[in-house]
Design a protein that fits this description.
By secondary structure, this protein is α/β, with parallel strands linked by helices. It has one domain: 3-Layer(aba) Sandwich (Peroxisomal Thiolase, Chain A, domain 1). It contains eleven helices and six strands. A six-stranded mixed sheet has the order 3-2-4-5-1-6, sandwiched between helices. Helix 2 packs across helix 5 and helix 8 packs across helix 9.
Length: about 300
C-alpha cells in the first residue's frame, strides 16, 4: 500500500510559511537556528495567544494551514512525533519548582510541557475526536509517527491523517548539550561541510502533512517506508539500500536523487558518505544548510527509507 500527501506546511528557520518552499538563498545562523515566526493574530485570540509558547502556536498554525490547503475542516486522526516536546515550558516549570523551594506552583507550564499537548490542542481546534497519539522516541519520533500513519491508513484507506513533527531549541538546552559535544559551539549552517568537529548544528522546526491512503489527484506518493538497525559499516548500509531498491524492481542507476540527514557531526556524517559511495554521481543536497531539524520532518533524510 502507498501513502499520498495531500498538503504540507512548515514553520522553519527559513521563510517557508505559509507554503513558500525553501528560499534560493538560506538565512544564516550562529550558534543555532531559530524558527522564522509568522504573525499569530489570525490564529488565536489575544488572551489565548499570550498563554501559549511559540512551539505550540507554531504547531497549531501549521496544522490549520495544512488542513486548509487540503480543503478539509478536520482529519480522521492526528499522529505526531517529537524528540523533546515543549522544552520552553518544561524549563519554566522546573525553574518555578526551584524558585518556590518545591512549594505550590501554577500548573500552566506543566500542562503545556507534556508531549501530547500539541496534538490535544489541534484536536480541540478542529474538533477531531478520533485517533490521536504522539510518539516521543527521541531521534526516531517522526519515523515512528509515520509508520503508525501507514498502519492506520492500511486499515482505513479512505480516511485522512494529520501527521506532524515538531521540536524546539532553547538557550538552556543548547548550553547543556554543547558541553557534551552534542551541539557545536561556534559554528553556523553555512559551515556544515567545512567544520569537521563533533556535534551537530542545533535548530528547530514544525512541519505537518495531510496523508491519505487513496489517491485523489496529482499528489506525492510514498511507496515504501523502511527503518533499520544495523552496524555502522558502509557494507551494511549498502546491503540495506540494495534490498529496498531490489524489492521495487529498481537499480541504483534508476534513482534520480537522494537526500540525507547530513548534520555537520563528524561521527554521524560518515554513514551518509557511505550512501554517496553507493549512489555515485547522484546529486546529494546538503539540506541542513537550510533548516537543520526540519529535514527529518520533511521526510528528506529517508534516503535509506523512502523511494518514490
Amino acid at each position: 500500500m502507498a501513502l499520498y500527501i495531500q498538503s504540507t506546511q512548515s514553520i522553519s528557520p527559513q521563510d517557508t510559511f505559509p507554503g513558500k518552499g525553501l528560499p534560493s538563498t538560506p538565512l544564516l545562523y550562529t550558534p543555532y537556528l531559530k524558527n522564522v515566526l509568522p504573525d499569530f493574530k489570525s490564529y488565536f485570540p489575544p488572551l489565548e495567544q499570550r498563554r501559549m509558547n511559540n512551539l505550540i502556536k507554531s504547531a497549531v498554525a501549521c496544522a490549520v494551514e495544512t488542513l486548509k490547503d487540503a480543503g478539509i475542516q478536520k482529519p480522521d486522526a492526528i499522529i505526531t512525533g517529537t524528540g523533546l516536546g515543549c522544552v520552553t515550558d518544561t524549563e519554566k516549570f522546573l525553574h518555578n519548582i526551584l524558585d518556590s523551594d518545591e512549594g505550590l506552583v501554577t500548573p500552566t507550564a506543566f500542562i503545556q510541557s507534556t508531549y501530547n499537548i500539541i496534538g490535544a490542542l489541534i484536536a480541540i481546534h478542529c474538533k477531531c475526536y478520533g485517533y490521536n497519539v504522539v510518539y516521543a522516541h527521541k531521534t526516531m519520533s517522526f519515523e515512528s509517527a509515520l509508520l503508525d500513519s501507514y498502519l492506520y491508513l492500511s486499515d482505513n484507506e479512505n480516511h485522512t491523517v494529520l501527521l506532524g513533527g515538531f521540536d524546539e531549541i532553547t538557550e538552556e538546552s543548547f548550553n547543556l548539550k554543547k558541553n557534551v559535544n552534542i551541539y557545536k559551539v561556534n559554528s553556523s549552517n553555512e559551515k556544515i561541510l567545512s567544520d569537521k568537529t563533533p556535534g551537530s548544528i542545533a535548530g528547530e522546526s514544525v512541519t505537518f502533512f495531510l496523508l491519505t491512503g487513496k489517491q485523489t489527484g496529482n499528489q506525492v506518493e510514498i511507496k515504501s517506508i523502511n527503518t533499520y538497525s544495523y552496524k555502522k559499516t558502509t557494507e551494511a548500509i549498502h546491503n540495506e539500500i540494495l534490498k529496498v531498491i531490489t524489492y521495487h524492481n529498481l537499480k541504483s542507476e534508476d534513482i534520480d536523487a537522494i537526500i540525507t540527514g547530513i548534520n555537520g557531526d563528524s561521527g554521524n556524517d560518515q554513514n551518509y558518505f557511505g550512501i554517496a559511495d553507493f549512489f555515485q554521481r547522484l546529486p546529494m543536497p546538503i539540506t541542513k544548510i537550510y533548516v537543520v531539524n526540519l529535514i527529518r520532518h520533511l521526510l528528506l533524510d529517508f534516503g535509506l527509507r523512502i523511494f518514490h
